[in-house]
Amino acid sequence: MAAKQRFALLGSGFIGQVHAQNLAMHPDTELVMVADSDPSRAAAVAQRYGAKCAEVSAAINSDTIDAVLIASSTPSHAELLLTAARAGKAIYCEKPIDLSLTRARQVVAQVLPLSVPVTVGFNRRFDASHQQLKQHLQRGDIGGAELIQMVCRSSEMPPLSYLQASGGQMRDQAIHFFDLLRWLTADEVTVVGAMGSALAQPEISAFGDVDTSVLIMQMASGALAQLDNTRRTGYGYDERISVLGARGLAESGSQSPQGVTLWQGNQQRRPGLWPDWFSRVKESYYLHLDAFVRQLNGELTADLPGLLDGLQAQAIAEAAVQSLAEKRFCTVEQITG
Amino acid sequence: MAAKQRFALLGSGFIGQVHAQNLAMHPDTELVMVADSDPSRAAAVAQRYGAKCAEVSAAINSDTIDAVLIASSTPSHAELLLTAARAGKAIYCEKPIDLSLTRARQVVAQVLPLSVPVTVGFNRRFDASHQQLKQHLQRGDIGGAELIQMVCRSSEMPPLSYLQASGGQMRDQAIHFFDLLRWLTADEVTVVGAMGSALAQPEISAFGDVDTSVLIMQMASGALAQLDNTRRTGYGYDERISVLGARGLAESGSQSPQGVTLWQGNQQRRPGLWPDWFSRVKESYYLHLDAFVRQLNGELTADLPGLLDGLQAQAIAEAAVQSLAEKRFCTVEQITG
Amino acid sequence: MAAKQRFALLGSGFIGQVHAQNLAMHPDTELVMVADSDPSRAAAVAQRYGAKCAEVSAAINSDTIDAVLIASSTPSHAELLLTAARAGKAIYCEKPIDLSLTRARQVVAQVLPLSVPVTVGFNRRFDASHQQLKQHLQRGDIGGAELIQMVCRSSEMPPLSYLQASGGQMRDQAIHFFDLLRWLTADEVTVVGAMGSALAQPEISAFGDVDTSVLIMQMASGALAQLDNTRRTGYGYDERISVLGARGLAESGSQSPQGVTLWQGNQQRRPGLWPDWFSRVKESYYLHLDAFVRQLNGELTADLPGLLDGLQAQAIAEAAVQSLAEKRFCTVEQITG
Amino acid sequence: MAAKQRFALLGSGFIGQVHAQNLAMHPDTELVMVADSDPSRAAAVAQRYGAKCAEVSAAINSDTIDAVLIASSTPSHAELLLTAARAGKAIYCEKPIDLSLTRARQVVAQVLPLSVPVTVGFNRRFDASHQQLKQHLQRGDIGGAELIQMVCRSSEMPPLSYLQASGGQMRDQAIHFFDLLRWLTADEVTVVGAMGSALAQPEISAFGDVDTSVLIMQMASGALAQLDNTRRTGYGYDERISVLGARGLAESGSQSPQGVTLWQGNQQRRPGLWPDWFSRVKESYYLHLDAFVRQLNGELTADLPGLLDGLQAQAIAEAAVQSLAEKRFCTVEQITG
């Protein structure tokens, strides 16, 4: 049996607490320290799981930890990533590396030579259904991918303050699907066309954001992809990916909780979708952590999203931002130079 | 190309009109005459399809017809069946042969030696989905049948006058499923247990009828079957058959018209079931006619329900009636002697 | 009861024969004449339905007909349309008016002042599910349309000869959905972005066609739309439209024939989609004809696709063709001038 | 915040370990002691959750525990129940109280006057979908229950040794559904008819057991119910309950894990059912425990299955056993005297 990986959690807000619970629950990890810019929040989380509360730099440099989980606010990711890499720790870093692709590249360039294990928080790769979809593609069950359709629809507008700091719908919401698209197809996006509107909350156009958008993408292989995003549906959280191949269609579809069907008159009423993104995707955080830990323990696990994946998904997002702004197709190469 | 089979339609009420349209539409049949105890009704139907109006006996004995379709009121079936058989006509006879099993047996005993082609109106055998189900069973796709579950639920109570003349829920409604059960499994029912209540319309218990019933049946092979019947659902017409075999389940399930799905809040609303029995089963009348015509034209068609099938389904119905009345399991052998 | 509308059918190929059967079946129409550049084909169809065979111009100008149904080859549409309009006949004209938008406009300009009833063959508006979808939108059941997703996927590549004469995927296949989009939303497309590849049959790129394409569209209201097209799936014919509104999603989804579900091991297997486009859409031809006849008989029927609808859908197709060719977003205004 | 309820777990086999994990996970319970006839098994479970290992009687009588969870082998339930009740502990007792209904009644008669909180392990009442079904019935959403259909199908034959000690399919498997039927309808079963066969494993008929059975039941209200049971499907674990009321149908249906749909040729393939009973029902153990703890903490929770529920479900099972053996309808009154 492998020794437990001892983690420091950096950042104990909403998503940090999700990670705290997973670190406490996983048989091969131990939550040793919790650090947060708000010490009282760190203390509360630490106490709940029997961990210690620590200063960020003390946590990173402690001999009693093997790995850090960076779940702090986005602007601090890059610095913490670099510090932890220099301290030789294994790193699970929430996405994005930095909202500035330039800054992200600089940090990645410094971190890569240090050769520490790093995974970037594209947890949706670990959705159990998306994993099955990937297996069908890898086994060639439907032939080569020709047309990929992706739906990313959140149930409710986030607070305005969140949106203002988010980098916009492409960098904050769609980015997960840019990564999924690359991962599922083992192919690269070359051209992006995007259109968007602020329909659910028109005032966000004041800072250049949209809440509803449609994208088309050309892949290097000639395959074509679609993505639509909305920040607010009236019907729960809807995440779907279907891939049309030369010999059929494979679909990781909308998901609903179990429940009762009512048949009355000329209608049947069934449970709708999961009410929000978190209820749908929460299990994938655990599965991502599990894959990372198995990697650290020397078990072979393919497809862990790494630093270069982080940069590439961001590059596609930048191309999409440019396409939205300039109302033209944009190549990713333009961004990656 | 085969010559057209020239039909006389005997009885032009609701179901007779269904047959009239099918006879007019089928490329290999010709509706030549229509007879009815109500001549004005016969005349209207005849005119609509370019047929002649005739007396019943004249129609049966005319040289210009090859076949009769008996769709008159139940008490006249037996006599018309016998007359038409003696006239050497091919016969499609609506079920039942006669409400009295004794009378039905007498007529069948007289008709069989005449060797005319006869099919009895168990049209549901020709439901396209039930046919697929039968194929799966015949091919052994799910292994031997072990547990058959059947649901037969009409959407609305028929008029009281209909019910009073119907012979009761077992002889009128459930009888189709007794036939389907024998046909699908190629097995015979040996014991029946039935419970029933008049829940939707309590006054029908005055003449000994029920509108809701549940049945269990033992088959000669040891397989077990269930059937439930209701005369009135609040959700359309529901007909379902599933067969559990040693290697899986095959299900000819509830059917709905196409339509729109609405996703709102925490619900999805889809089209419900067909509104009534006729919208669900109407195509099977045509398919049954087609199979009969192909048989007359010398094409091999298996599984046409014949006179002995009619008697056997009635025997099961009688055992069910007895079980309901005497509150005990009843053997079919008791009935068939 | 209204007098029957007497039709001449112009063109008796595959789709002409579909119309012939509908004209014969409809209680308020009469198929009087059939004309075709191949007289033997016309004769066969005429005989089957008890109609006369005629020269095209004789048919159009005959006093014994009230209406013409133009189902001849595309290049002849415009001329026949004009001739029939000048003869004062009501006209059901298969789409497109002409592959050349310029020519189409010229003819429409001449036909409109003649004030004869004309409908253009956008039969998919009469799909029963799409009609329900439209009703939900009109009643405001899901609030204003914000994001429309359309899927148009044929099961098999048409013959190369067909493709070469078709005008390409935008003008031939996608055009139905440009019309559906305008009709469903009562909104206009302003900008189109399209990407396409010849993946199923690479040789069609020799004449500039694609078999797989993805499109995004901006609507005048700010709403956004997506469409994907393929000429060949490995899973039957897939046509779907969903509309996300401010208060939910309404979906006219993929359609399958009825059949059996098999549950075995860890899988359920259900019937797939309709095998080809015709089995899915054939009913809509009848319903379109029916709506046109009711309009001729003075019954109010909204939403019959007219000449201007034909031009507008073609304009969107031209913008899409331009976007594909020039790899940029194109406005429809550029086309319509 | 309520004090934690301190539990002793009596019995640490498969189901005891399920309870151990739930007791460790629940925020308001504490797993203090584990006792088992096999001390090494108790020790292993105790260690995993930081509990102590104890003798059974010491555990029951310890001042440091408030409640016991009886998950030992069936023959020991009655004695432990009585001992714990005399010690004044709250009790969660796995079903059945005793395989002998006579013995079960004797113990219940002794325990009831002691007025300790007791719940009997009918955990399926706490299935989230069945709970929704109950709410629909209580609110009258579908009117009064008229026809209840229940399906209870396990995926794989248990070991022969298990079956020999189980009391047979009625007492071991169907009993959960006798309880669910009473709970959902708030009605009592009056008459039972049952047929059964040993089809999956014929040798179990040597000790009078069946693996496939169908039952019909009359309720005091006149409502009718059906149940089918099998020990081995070829398609996973299938548990379903539907209730037909005067105004529609409510269905807590078959449940499948999430996954990918493959559309190929003329088929769609979807995930099948949960592979076994435990994956389907495991959550209900936690929810049952949670309801019990909330009751202990003075929060109102209705519908906790109690000792009398245990006796009544067993009485129905005895009537079913009698019906199977004697091939006649049996009243429950005959059993309850």
Summed over residues and divided by their number, the pLDDT of chain A gives a mean of 96
Counted beta strands of chain A? 15
Strand order of the largest sheet of chain A: 12-11-7-10-9-8-15
Q: What is the CATH architecture annotation of the largest domain in chain A?
A: 2-Layer Sandwich
**What best-fitting shape of chain A do the alpha-carbon axes yield?**
globular
Rg of chain A (CA only):
20 Å
Biggest sheet architecture of chain A: 7 strands, mixed
Distance between the termini of chain A: 46 Å
Low-confidence stretches of chain A: none
What's the CATH C level of the largest domain in chain A? Answer: Alpha Beta
Give the oligomer, counting copies of the same chain as homo and different chains as hetero: homotetramer
- Fourth-tier CATH superfamily name of the largest domain in chain A: Dihydrodipicolinate Reductase, domain 2
Largest interface: A-C, 42 and 42 residues
Portion of residues in beta strands of chain A equals: 15-25%
Whole-number tally of structural domains of chain A: 2
Number of helices of chain A: 11
Structural class of chain A: alpha/beta
| Order of H and E elements of chain A | EHEHEHEHEHEHEHHEEEEEEEHHEH
